[in-house]
Design brief:
Elements: E1 36-39, E2 46-49, H1 51-60, E3 65-68, E4 79-81, E5 86-88
Antiparallel strand pairs: 1-2, 1-3, 4-5
Bound molecules: zinc ion (2 copies).
One zinc ion binds near residues 18, 49 and 50.
Length: about 110
Amino acid sequence: MQPFAPLGRDVRLRGRKCGHSPGDTPANDCQNDATWHIAWDTAMENGYACDPHMTVARAQYVFVAAHRIGPDCGMPGALWDFDNNRCTCPDEQPCLTTAAEEPIPA
Ligand SMILES: [Zn+2]
Ligand SMILES: [Zn+2]
C-alpha cells in the first residue's frame, strides 16, 4: 500500500466536513463534521478528518502535522502555525471573532 493519502477532490468546497471518501465519490463522502485538520505535505495540501477517520489516517498514511480543528482552521488568510500546531491568522484581524480556543492536546 502506498503511504500517501489519496487527496481526491478539494474538500474545502465541502466546508469543514471529514474528507474521507472511499473511491472519491460524493456518494461515499463521510458526513461527519471534521474534528482534525491534517497537513498532508509541506506544500500545505491539507484536509479534514473526523475522529474515526483520523485514526484510519494515522494507521495508514504519512502526514506532516495534524491538530484539532480550531476556530481559524480553513478560514481565509489563516496560516498553519507549526510551532504551536494550530491554525492562526497572521495579522491583527481575527479570522473569526471570539471563538473559544480549545487547548491543544499534546
Ligand atoms: Zn469521517
Ligand atoms: Zn488547522
